[in-house]
Design brief:
Elements: H1 11-28, H2 34-48, H3 51-63, H4 68-73, H5 85-98, H6 109-118, H7 121-143
Helix pairs in contact: 1-7, 2-3, 2-5, 2-7, 5-6, 5-7
């Protein structure tokens, strides 16, 4: 499989990608736990069928110490015992926030209450922004058919700035 278009080889695409990356850095620097960030990005990417992002976030999570068991069970988190209540709330918010176009009523009050129970305002701002940004990234990569498999952890570190 070959990418249809390399956004980073295009001046405007690279400029946009750099800005998106810098938004991601603000989220990375937040108090939202890194493990939660990784799980959220992986789950949204699974739902959206983004091979590049599943590859990216699985490898980054592994490099930061996430276990294979938790990564493998992310797609079936509701039927798993390896996630905390806070992570479950974040994963539920991720699914409901990602599936808005699937005739979903959006984010349920029960999910929002669980998120409010486990996260402070700064963490919620980071979590909501993370879900929006990973969905945008998934769409960019799926549209241009950017394949998974070749990502190396830290590959985009020079985009900051």
């Amino acid at each position: 499989m070959e990418s249809r278009f390399d956004l980073l080889d295009n001046a405007l695409g690279a400029k946009i990608a750099k800005r998106i990356y810098n938004v991601a850095l603000a989220i990375v620097d937040s108090s939202l736990p890194e493990s939660t960030q990784n799980l959220v990005m992986l789950r949204a990417s699974q739902i959206n069928g983004c091979g590049f992002c599943v590859d990216y976030h699985t490898k980054d999570a592994t490099a930061s110490g996430e276990t294979a068991v938790r990564l493998n069970l992310t797609a079936a988190w509701r039927e798993s015992t390896v996630f905390t209540d806070a992570e479950r709330a974040a994963l539920a918010l991720t699914e409901e926030g990602t599936r808005i176009a699937d005739a979903s009523p959006g984010v349920s009050d029960a999910t929002w209450a669980a998120v409010r129970e486990h996260y402070d305002d700064d963490q919620i701002a980071a979590l909501v922004s993370l879900i929006a940004m990973i969905n945008a990234n998934n769409r960019l990569n799926v549209i241009v058919r950017n394949p998974g498999g070749a990502y190396q952890p830290g590959q985009f570190a020079d985009m900051a700035g």
